[in-house]
Amino acid sequence: MSPPSPERILIIKLGALGDMIQAMGPAQAIRQHHPNAQITLLTTSPFEKLAHAAPYFDTVWIDPRPSFWRNPGALWQFRLKLRAARFDRVYDLQTSDRSSFYRLLFLPGPMPEWSGIARGASHPHANPLRDFVHTIERQRDQLKYAGIDDVPMTDLSWLDADLSGLALADSGQVLLVPGGAAHRPEKRWPAASYAALAAHVVGRGLQPVILGGAIETALAQEIYATVPQALDLTGRTDFGMIAALARKARCAIGNDTGPMHLIAAIGCPATVLFSSASDPAITRPRGPEVTVLKRERLADLSPAEVAASLPLG
């Protein structure tokens, strides 16, 4: 008699970097709850390499974001792919209108069990307060409704990279993350304030290291023009390198943006800056040593106040 086929599980997580980092604890819990399952992650292309490195997924799919109106053929092909996979259960950790709509693509026909907020879900997250708690608590609560009680904090011990090619000083590093979403400038502490903080870091005998995407190189150059001892790594680091830098650094300072979630989860002491544009009670990075500084306007936060929050030794 042949052994039964393993469970087929789909996890949906499409969001930004911070959301992906905070979903790794739930992904670990799902893997532990379904130890012999074939687990597929549906995500977006910026996180494909990160997902392949994680030990929780057997297969990674990239969301084609099919549109009924603009590309019905792609939507049909995605529907066929979902149905052919014969998933036994779906954990929708995105819980958006799009991810909930994907449940309808299984109709008509066998419907997998569904954890999320989609209409007709077999394991609905029915807590009316779900949108008023931190992302980590919301996901833990969602999985509890699905029968998973033990959800660990994010463990990124598997994420690493070689830093030997970088010009890192022996004196030690302080990571600066001055960027963020380009369409949300109110969430950014001014580059001039980062430059003043970088000068303070140099004065303490440490090396400021500026992190961010290539789009943030202009911000880094503004800091570097004032503090040429800073190391500009914008556009030069992947997620593994950020993790390795966070393990090595004395501490990190940054805006409410994705890399700070990764840095904090690694365990690097992190100071995260919030304006009135976002609520740290719901979105703050989680980690063993996270400090939040909040002002209505980040321009009102002085470099001296930020420096006082950093463990510079």
Q: Please give the number of β-strands.
A: 12
What oligomeric state best describes the polypeptide chains here?
Answer: single chain
Whole-Å distance between the termini?
Answer: 65 Å
Order of helices and strands: EHHEHEHEHEEHEHEHEHEHEHEH
| Class derived from helix and strand content | alpha/beta
Q: Any guess at the CATH architecture of the largest domain? A: 3-Layer(aba) Sandwich
Write down the overall geometry.
elongated
Percent of sequence in beta strands: 15-25%
Structure description:
The protein is α/β, with parallel strands linked by helices and about 325 residues long. The protein has two domains: about 10-145, Rossmann fold; about 175-310, Rossmann fold (3-Layer(aba) Sandwich), CATH 3.40.50. It is about 35% helix and about 15% strand. The protein contains twelve helices and twelve strands. It has helices at about 15-20, 25-35, 50-55, 70-85, 95-100, 135-145, 190-205, 215-225, 240-250, 260-265, 280-285, 305-310; strands at about 10, 40-45, 60, 90, 115, 125, 175, 205-210, 230, 250-255, 270-275, 290-295. The strands form two sheets. Strands 3-2-1-4-5-6 form a six-stranded parallel beta sheet. Strands 9-8-7-10-11-12 form a six-stranded parallel beta sheet, sandwiched between helices. Helix 9 (about 240-250) packs across helix 10. The longest helix is centred in the N-terminal third of the chain and has 14 residues, at about 70-85. The chain is elongated, with a radius of gyration of 21 Å. The N and C termini lie far apart (about 65 Å). The model has no long low-confidence stretch (mean pLDDT about 95).
